[in-house]
């Protein structure tokens, strides 16, 4: 990753930990061009295999299974916060153990999924886990399969709220703030995960370099939607 | 679902550990540790907030407040409360998932003859 990106990440990590968090979880909606393209695939084929990597959503399960598709749920952001994954690297830095993480998560047979919904996972997941996770996704997706991910732009700022996404219509998403209690802490201490970094377009292309193609959709809410074809 | 009154359910308390096959013809509330398999056919299983079940489960209805590792087959419904942590595939006709519940696995909604699928959040 380039020095520019490193500087952006340092900027975020040195920022205040006092995230503005409303007392009541707020829900917003957004129109999603990427989800619209995926819906066209869902409507044109039967019995597709879908992996939803966001927080478990009854809405999404209903949306996909009602169309006759198979739904797998795996809340990877929550799994990535497991303190048992933390190790020291060769330089003595604290990192997450990507090998152990992938031994315990995303354990599927090769070329199984037609659609993967990453949502905003790469922006909130610890850096040492992002590339290994994308590489694993490549191996569990079918050739021609679609992956949808959301990436913040620089305008989002370090205290950008982490959302879970509920599919409410073919191209409409309901966004609901995600809050977790830190591992080992009571649920009363829930807080929103912090944005770990901002990828620029070149970094995103590099992240998905093994995939066949990548398409960007720009939006007004400091989010780039990225639709990747395996 | 709160802890049931004694007499309504067979109750496995939080200090109880069971390993093996568990089957019955009455509703079961598990607030302890069960490892193996649970088969209740026409009755319901409730995993209480202290419950830790590592078992394949087959029942009419399954309500989870605690932790459940294993495949779940519920002929009627599955209800994952906000404190639920479920690792395993779920096969049922209806599923309700409260915000905060954690599910890692496949959800297979089997349509009831003549009725639409039922999923609630």
Average predicted confidence as pLDDT of chain B:
88
CATH superfamily of chain A: Vaccinia Virus protein VP39
Quote the distance from N terminus to C terminus of chain B. 16 Å
Helix content of chain B: under 10%
- Widest β-sheet, arrangement of strands of chain B: 6-7-9-11-10-8
Major pleated sheet of chain A: 6 strands, mixed
Number of helical segments with 4 or more residues of chain A: 8
Count of domains of chain B:
1
Instruction: Tell me the number of helical segments of chain B per DSSP (H or I, 4 or more residues long).
Output: 0
Report the end-to-end length of chain A measured between terminal Cα atoms. Answer: 22 Å
Helix content of chain A: 25-40%
Subunit arrangement of the protein: heterodimer
Class from helix and strand fractions of chain B: mainly beta
Rg on CA atoms of chain A, Å: 17 Å
Keywords:
heterodimer, A: 230 residues, alpha/beta, Rossmann fold, three-stranded antiparallel β-sheet, 30% helix, 28% strand, B: 121 residues, mainly beta, 12 strands, 0% helix
Report what the structure shows.
The complex is a heterodimer of chains A (230) and B (121). With 230 residues, chain A is of the alpha/beta class. Chain A has one domain (3-14, 22-229): Vaccinia Virus protein VP39 (Rossmann fold, 3-Layer(aba) Sandwich). Helices cover 30% and strands 28% of the residues of chain A. In chain A, α5 packs across α7 (127-140). Chain B has 121 residues and is mainly beta. β3 (70-73) of chain A pairs antiparallel with β11 of chain B.
């Amino acid at each position: 990753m380039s020095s520019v990106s490193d500087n952006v990440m340092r900027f975020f990590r040195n920022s205040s930990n006092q995230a503005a968090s409303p007392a009541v979880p707020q829900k917003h909606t957004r129109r999603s061009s990427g989800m619209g393209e995926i819906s066209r695939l869902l409507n044109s084929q039967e019995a597709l295999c879908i992996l939803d990597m966001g927080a478990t959503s009854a809405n999404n399960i209903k949306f996909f299974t009602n169309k006759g598709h198979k739904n797998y749920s795996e809340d990877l952001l929550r799994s990535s916060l497991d303190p048992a994954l933390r190790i020291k690297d060769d330089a003595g830095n604290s990192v997450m153990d990507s090998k152990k993480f992938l031994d315990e998560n995303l354990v599927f047979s090769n070329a199984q999924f037609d659609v993967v919904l990453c949502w905003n996972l790469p922006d909130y997941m610890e850096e040492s886990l992002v590339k290994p996770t994308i590489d694993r996704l490549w191996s569990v997706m079918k050739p021609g399969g679609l992956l949808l991910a959301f990436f913040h732009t620089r305008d989002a700022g370090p205290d950008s709220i982490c959302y879970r996404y509920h599919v409410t219509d073919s191209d409409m998403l309901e966004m609901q703030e995600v809050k977790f209690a830190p591992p080992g802490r009571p649920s009363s201490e829930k807080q929103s995960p912090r944005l770990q970094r901002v990828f620029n377009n070149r970094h995103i292309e590099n992240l998905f370099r093994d995939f066949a193609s990548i398409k960007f959709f720009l939006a007004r809410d400091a989010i780039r939607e990225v639709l990747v074809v395996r | 679902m709160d802890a049931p009154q004694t007499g309504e359910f067979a109750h496995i308390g939080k200090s109880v550990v069971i390993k093996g096959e568990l089957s019955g013809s009455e509703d079961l509330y598990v607030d302890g540790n069960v490892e193996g398999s649970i088969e209740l056919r026409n009755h319901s299983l409730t995993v209480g907030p202290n419950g830790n079940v590592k078992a394949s489960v087959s029942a009419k209805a399954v309500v989870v407040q605690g932790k459940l590792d294993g495949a779940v087959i519920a002929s009627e419904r599955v209800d994952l409360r906000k404190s639920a942590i479920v690792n395993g595939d779920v096969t049922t006709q209806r599923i309700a998932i409260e915000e905060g519940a954690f599910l890692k696995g496949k959800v297979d909604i089997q349509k009831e003859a003549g009725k639409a699928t039922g999923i609630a959040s």
